[in-house]
Design a protein that fits this description.
Number of helices: 4
Radius of gyration: 19 Å
Helix content: 40-55%
Number of domains: 1
Largest sheet: 2 strands, antiparallel
Oligomer: single chain
Strand order of the largest sheet: 1-2
Number of strands: 6
Shape: elongated
C-alpha cells in the first residue's frame, strides 16, 4: 500500500491529518456526539439505570457504598486509541447486564445512533 497518495499537485499528509483528528476541538466534538448517543440509549433503555422488573436486575449492576446503593448506567462512553493510526476516538458500550439485555433484545444502541444524529 502506497504511503503517499497524490492527486495532481496535492500530496496527502498523514501526520497532519492525525494532528487535526487528535486536536482538542475535534475531540470535544466527538465526545459530545458520543455523549448524545449514550444519553439517548440510556433514556430508551429505561431512564438513568433503573431496572424495570425483577427479571432484569442483576447483582453486578449495583455498586454498594456504605449506607447507600448506586446503580451503574446501562451504557457508558469510553475513550479509545485506534491501534494502527494512533488516533483518539470515543465508543458507546454497554455498562451493565441491563444494557447488554437491552441491546440484544431491542437494538437500543443502533436506534440511539440514528435518533441522536450521531
Amino acid at each position: 500500500m502506497a504511503s503517499n497518495v497524490k492527486f495532481g499537485k496535492f500530496k496527502a499528509n498523514k501526520a497532519g491529518y492525525s494532528a487535526v483528528k487528535n486536536s482538542s476541538a475535534v475531540q470535544s466534538m466527538l465526545r459530545g456526539k458520543a455523549d448524545r448517543v449514550r444519553s439517548q440509549a440510556v433514556s430508551m433503555a429505561g431512564g438513568n439505570g433503573e431496572v424495570r422488573g425483577p427479571a432484569r436486575h442483576h447483582p453486578k449492576d449495583t455498586i454498594a457504598y456504605p449506607g447507600s446503593e448506586y446503580r451503574k448506567p446501562p451504557f457508558v462512553t469510553k475513550p479509545v486509541v485506534l491501534p494502527i493510526a494512533g488516533d483518539h476516538a470515543y465508543i458507546v458500550a454497554t455498562g451493565t447486564n441491563h444494557g447488554r439485555y437491552s441491546e440484544a433484545k431491542h437494538k437500543v444502541l443502533s436506534k440511539a445512533l440514528g435518533a441522536a444524529n450521531g
